[in-house]
Design a protein that fits this description.
Blueprint: H1 9-25, H2 40-59, H3 72-94, H4 99-102, H5 112-128, H6 131-156
Length: about 160
């Protein structure tokens, strides 16, 4: 459960799947998006989680493909969540780019833009049996999903 040090090409691919749409988003933010009122505690969890996940997913080779086993199911589901995340972004970029689009659900998963990648990385951690990625993803999820919940509640008022 500790992990084997070594480069993870799967981790690298996941980070590309995460960062590329977010870089594009920085130029296509939703109308009325306000980040200055974000909860500082949740923001701290998010930033620490981002750093830990980004490092952890790259430095353990356990996330790379192995021979087929029951654990491979975790990987397949993780990949499905990450693919769904990419499709969620495509839908967002084709939308009017309003707050309701940014905080939308996708195939019944609420706040999909925050939830899907967190689930993808969490299941990747389970697949690789690396407790450090699991812990890092939980920290990220508390902050990232928490911030999205806060914004979503404000949107509904």
């Amino acid at each position: 459960m500790i992990g084997n040090l070594g480069f993870s090409y799967i981790g690298f691919i996941y980070l590309l799947m995460l960062f590329i749409p977010n870089i594009i988003w920085s130029k296509n933010q939703p109308k009325g998006y306000e980040y200055k009122t974000e909860n500082k505690t949740l923001l701290l969890f998010e930033r620490i989680g981002q750093l830990l996940v980004s490092c952890t997913v790259l430095i353990f080779s356990d996330f790379n493909l192995h021979n087929w086993s029951v654990w491979s199911i975790w990987f397949i589901i993780s990949v499905i969540f990450m693919i769904m995340y990419e499709f969620w972004w495509i839908r967002y970029f084709k939308s009017n780019k309003e707050l309701k689009d940014f905080y939308s659900s996708f195939f019944g998963i609420p706040l999909a833009g925050a939830t899907l990648p967190v689930l993808g990385f969490l299941l990747l951690g389970i697949y690789g049996k690396v407790i450090w990625l699991i812990i890092s993803t939980i920290i990220l999820g508390i902050g990232h999903i928490g911030i999205h919940i806060h914004h979503f509640k404000k949107l509904k008022k």
